[in-house]
Amino acid sequence: MADIVSGQWAGSDRKARLPSNWAKLRLRVLRRDGHRCVHTFSRGQRCIADATDVDHIKAGDDHSLSNLQSLCREHHKLKTQQEAQEGKRRADARARYPEAKHPGLL
């Protein structure tokens, strides 16, 4: 994942939310995936780069092996950026179209 020194984790509590056995989980996932990025391109070809990062497939704090995957730095960065953009789109939509209060609650 991005390093803290570069500031990419600035303001994030992500590292603090990782389980105490994260180093072991991370190594287990990397070994399971053969230390290769598991990203697949549209034609089904798998990335040939070495995996440097372990990513949560679904965002959140599910640290189960089925929710973890090995990615190269570039594909992890791309996935993170896409997730951030989607989160911003959702937040913008909520701001533009606030949820209407139920008439019975007015």
From TrEMBL:
Region of interest called Disordered, as start-end residue ranges on this chain: 76-106
Residue ranges of coiled coil: none
Domain HNH nuclease: 24-77
Domain of life the protein comes from: Bacteria
Protein name as annotated: HNH nuclease domain-containing protein
InterPro entries with a match to the protein in the record: HNH_nuc (IPR003615)
Biased composition (Basic and acidic residues): 85-106
Species this chain originates from: Streptomyces daqingensis
CDD domains in UniProt: HNHc
